[in-house]
Amino acid sequence: MSGIGKAISRQQTRPANGARGMTLVELIIAISVLSILTGIAVPAIDSAQRARVARAPVNQLYSMAREVRLRAMSEQRPYQVLFDNEGFKASRFYHPYGGREEFDELKMKLDQLDQRDAIIEASQARGIDMSGPQEVDLQREQVEEGIRFLKEYDLESGVEYKLRFWDDTDWIDMNSGEFRRWVFQPSGMCEPLKIQVQSEGAFFEIEFHPLTADVKRERSWVE
Q1: Distance of alpha carbon 21 from the chain centroid
Q2: pTM flag (> 0.70)
Q3: Partners of 172 in the beta sheet?
Q4: In the predicted model, what is the mean pLDDT of residues 207-213?
Q5: Counting beta carbons within 10 angstroms of the beta carbon of residue 204, is it exposed (0 to 12), middle (13 to 18) or buried (19 or more)?
Q6: pLDDT at residue number 33
Q7: Which sequence spans correspond to the domains of the chain?
Q8: pLDDT above 60 for 29
Q9: pLDDT tens digits, residue range 70-128?
């Protein structure tokens, strides 16, 4: 083949636009860099997930505390947050010495109210007037308003928490089956409370202010 033909042949074998494929060395370097970046990102994502799981109960408790405090002040009635091994519950405060059965009764009353409302709605759809005297209806609504407020938060699997009220000498392990209540007075005041929440590789400790129910102090770590 002439020199001109060889030159044309070499020119035809070159990729268009000056592009070229990756060499084996470049491919190995790219894979190594990707592996390093993946090794950094995966633990960071895992830590963020552990922090989210441990932080969720703290956020929920703060939200409950703010709501029951506002309700207690606006209605001039005490409200409460209940703690047990399942999680947290918020409701109006009824019995100073009540226990878990108080919430069983409350749920039963809620079911009865829902059934009654369904009957009234079905009757009204048929043109039947089920309402009573206006004064009686107003009193009934005022009573039912407090009963209908019930919020529950169930802990995720693997989450453990402890409480410490102002008169406790040590932390109370709530996963052991204890039952405690945190009462908010019509003035908005509550008992000082600390909570520790721990899950796999994450820990949060929060102290609530007795006058505002805001977070007074916080410390945490995540592996």
Answers
A1: 51
A2: no
A3: 163
A4: 91
A5: buried
A6: 63
A7: 33-222
A8: yes
A9: 999 998 999 999 999 999 999 888 776 666 677 677 777 777 777 767 766 777 777 76
Residue with tokens 């169930």: 154
Kindly state the helix (H) or strand (E) to which residue 141 belongs, with its residue range.
helix 134-147
Pairwise CA distance, residues 198 & 68, whole Å? 25
Buried b (16+ CB within 10 A) or exposed e, 126-158: eeeeeeeeeeeeeeeeeeeebeebeeebebeee
Structure tokens at 206: 């929060």
Average pLDDT estimate for 133-144 = 47
In the DSSP assignment, the letter for residue 23 is P
As a CATH number, domain 33-222 is 3.55.40.10
Report the alpha-carbon distance of residue 63 to residue 78 in Å, rounded: 17
DSSP string, 71-102: HHHHHTS-EEEEE-SSEEEEEE---TT--HHH
For residue 21, the 8-state DSSP code is P
| Averaged pLDDT for residues 41-49 | 56
What is the rounded distance in angstroms from the CA atom of residue 172 to the CA atom of residue 34? 47
